[in-house]
Each structure stands twice: as structure tokens, then as C-alpha cells.
Amino acid sequence: MGGITFYTHPNSRGRIVRWMLEELGEPYETRVLTYGPAMKTPEYLAINPMGKVPAIVHGDTVVSECAAICAYLADAFPDKGLAPPLGERGAYYRALFFGAGPVEAAVTATDLKIEVPAQKVGSVGYGSPELTFATIERMVEQRPYVAGDSFTAADVYFGAQVIWGLMFKLMPARPALEAYAARLTAREAYRRASELDDAAAAALDAERG
After folding, report:
1. Is pLDDT above 80 for 61?
2. Torsion region of 70: left, alpha or beta (phi above 0 gives left; psi -120 to 50 gives alpha)
3. DSSP label at 141?
4. CA gap 58, 35 in Å, rounded
5. Measured in whole angstroms, how far is the alpha carbon of residue 107 from the centre of its chain?
6. Of the candidates 8, 28, 20, the residue with the CA atom closest to the CA atom of residue 160
7. CA distance 63 to 68
8. Full-prediction pTM beyond 0.90?
9. What is the dihedral of CA 92, 93, 98, 101, to 10 degrees?
10. Interatomic CA distance for residues 199 and 151, integer angstroms
11. Cβ proximity of 53 and 63 under 8 Å
12. What is the pLDDT of residue 209?
């Protein structure tokens, strides 16, 4: 299918995909796009019409959105063991899409200090941040990884949001969440990805003078 081209910025959600790529262990080419016009060119808008990063191109396949990229890469390289067998994917799919829906929305609402009126909690997909965070806690408190006993692509996407939420104090620092985040940040691929993105960020800063 050809190689993987990874479009990103080191201070973006591209860090999630970088981690996934490092877990995958396949060669890939990184193209760092600066914010502004570089993400709005006709060439890049043909890859991601939102004009945002991250995105990947793998042969003739174009994928944007972090959860979709993680799921795609796990399926494209099944020998890496980053997705459970099809018949055992209930918790795996739930984590990916719960992360892309309620978790993303609840963390954003917390960051922007958006409060859902009590009478509207049932109308909002995430209900309330408190409900979402309590659900996350239940998902990780009785097993090492969100889909079971083995690390999967769901831990990259869902776990990155837990790590980020705790880091920026947008998620309550409960023991189960902190223990889960510690297991993930101890992974060699996570550390390697962080080092690569930190170096890319430093290089951009140097270019700006």
C-alpha cells in the first residue's frame, strides 16, 4: 500500500497519532505544518477539508481525526496486535468512540467553563463532566487497560485524553485515573513519541527566533 505520511504540528492532537505510530513501529514520513496558511492550502485541504492536523496518507487511503487514524492503523497492521479480535471489540470500540464523543466534549466544556443546565443534562451527549469523568474512572479501575488486559489502540486515543486532562487539571486526579495514566506514560513508545514532538516544537521555536 505504500508508506505512511503523517501531517502534524508538535503542539496539537498530532501527538496522539505520533504515539500511535511509534507503538506501530512502522516507518513513516513526518510533515510538520505550521498553523495558519500552511494548513489551508488547496493541497492540504484535499487531505483534510477542516484544514487541521493530524492526518495520514497511507498509499491511496487518507484518514483524519485521531480516533479514526488510531483505529485504521491498528487494522492496517493486524500483526502488531493493537486491536482485539473482531468478536472481542465491544470495550475497544466503546473506548474509541466514547473518547471521541463524551470525553472530548466534557474536557472542552470544563476548559471553557461551560455549565450544562440541570434540565438539559439529558439532552447533552456527555450529560455532565462529572458523569463523564465518573464513567472514565469505572472503565479503568478494575483492569489495566481500557479494553481489557492488553494494551490496544484504544488506550492510545482514550488514554491520551486522560493524560492530557490530568496534566492540565481538566479532569479530577482520582487514583484510578492517575494509575492508568502512569501505566501509559511509562511505555517506551509514548516516551519516544514525546521526545520526537518536543524536539520538533523546539525546532519550530528556533526558526521563529
Report:
1. yes
2. alpha
3. S
4. 23
5. 13
6. 20
7. 7
8. yes
9. 140
10. 26
11. no
12. 74
Fill in the amino acid letter for 122: G
* DSSP states of 47-112: T-TT--S-EEEETTEEEESHHHHHHHHHHH-GGG--S--GGG-HHHHHHHHHIIIIIHHHHHHHHH
Task: Give the cell for residue 32.
Answer: 510538520
For the record, the C-alpha cell of 104 comes out as 472530548
| pLDDT per position as a tens digit, 106-145 | 999 999 999 999 899 999 999 999 999 999 999 999 999 9
Contacts 24+ apart (CB under 8 A), 173-176: 174/133, 174/137, 176/137, 176/140, 176/141
Give the lowest-confidence range in 26-30, 83-87, 192-196, 204-208: 204-208
At 150, list the grid cell: 492488553
What single-letter amino acid sits at 79?
A: D
